[in-house]
């Protein structure tokens, strides 16, 4: 019964090898599992359950409880027959399915629950001995310490010896059951099918359920099994079936031999009914000792697996060491023994016992989720020989969660908080693992669904920039990536791309370079995809990228590149922009002023950024896109102290007031926090006005003319460069044709 840092890469588990001297199905799985199932609840609380729920109510409780256990056992069998379950049992299964973070979040509490359970069982054994021999004046503490030391020595000596000791305990439990079945009635009674005005049904269910949660005792011994793939399913299901059969028969005898009031009042009523009363005491003692042995065998193996996977800090890696040909966790056993001794000395574990139960049930819950998700995703790598429909595993998970709240809602919440805290602690350490897990499969399934559900029709309601950043080496043009990150702010995808010279990299080296760039971006806090391509020249490569890159309807809609300063490449550069425009892409060119005395990306709490948007072409085309980009930049937390200035130049003094009114109304209708500013030319050229008005800005947005004529577009682009020669960072914007950015703005 189960009572109520960035880290260095982890050490991999040792390779799987045949273990001819390992434990078999009966000794390694069935025995510890059935002895944990047939625990003290059966001896001390089953009569109380029958007295409160009646015969039919008790049978219903047994069926419901065993259904949840059976579903969990099926999930265990599915996972166990898909892969070799090595040291760590439940932790190993969860970490290899749902990831090392989830495995650690469940595994650490499970270890302490197992370790502290040793103290719970030895204290329970001591209490029963003191109660059985009240005249001897025995000390409960000393008896508990002696029994804990004995159990610890047994486990430290050999798991095989401990398993053999459990055979004697099984014999004692079998003797107690035979003595009970061939016993007698304690009073004249009639069978009460239903009992009214007693404890609520679910309260009685909560008391009984821990009696059937012992199926992981065998799983915890996975690393010591001769053939875990065969032994775990057979042994676990056999133990569940045996326990179910016994728990279905026992209430019939109890209901036939005593009234409900007697069953409720006397915890050891089975002793009075037994043919030989002391046999029941032997069964109680055997049940507590077997559970203690099972816990002290299982806990060190979980600790060993946690240490080997690098869950703990590096200085605790010694806990992963094994000894002897069977790789027994001697060090882990000593640590568990110390934890158990400390808990025994404290004595009163009633306050944390419900939380320990929640940790066990959390393990079963997550195991069901693991098997359910693996089955639902139907990954080619998940091929268990024992097939279970994913819906059964999910049903088992729901049942576990419901039972947790029925047993103790507060303890459930406490356990959940602990598990979540450990999850984020492990995740923060950024462990590097050598195995895959189901999380990538989940994202792949969701990605497939999303791509197939996303058609190729332009949707102004959900438009957002999907950037293809032609940055080359990220270190050389980092501001391009900074701009893309500032404009998306987790609302769009960024792909950092580079065109490599033809023949400079083979496919393998190109993949390595992509991974290096991706790692560099992650270290700088940028979430982006990376794409490299080889081409005769960078312009052809960029056009090829735009033409071929993407998946389904998910393609970059906005190309971000740096300004070209080389006059020899100007014609080809402008031709590339024109081709990108014809490909229905937005083109954004970042032009920086290297002579600026300040960095526009520099963060300062007291600095108020200014974003100038020059409004010239109306709301159609470039104007709308510039406003959208300015709004996106301003909505970034780093730029929220900034102010958008919407500027318009007029040549006629009589048009100033009307233009100002129209611009104010536009800002109001578009619901953009911007300052509208109408500037009277007074004979000045636009270049002069631009330099005078925007010299104090941090960012300037200027529209590019449509590249309908190649030669004219080159001269227009050169004119933009001349206008902005001494200005702060400027962004040239060319909106994709035939896309209604006015609807994106949502003008009233």
Automatic annotation (TrEMBL):
InterPro entries: AA-permease/SLC12A_dom, SLC12_C, SLC12A_fam. The chain crosses the membrane at residues 21-44, 56-81, 102-124, 136-156, 168-186, 201-219, 231-255, 275-299, 351-373, 393-426, 613-633. It is a multi-pass membrane protein. Keywords: Membrane, Transmembrane, Transmembrane helix. Residues 29-468 form the Amino acid permease/ SLC12A domain. Residues 478-599, 604-680 form the SLC12A transporter C-terminal domain. This is Na+/K+/2Cl-cotransporter.
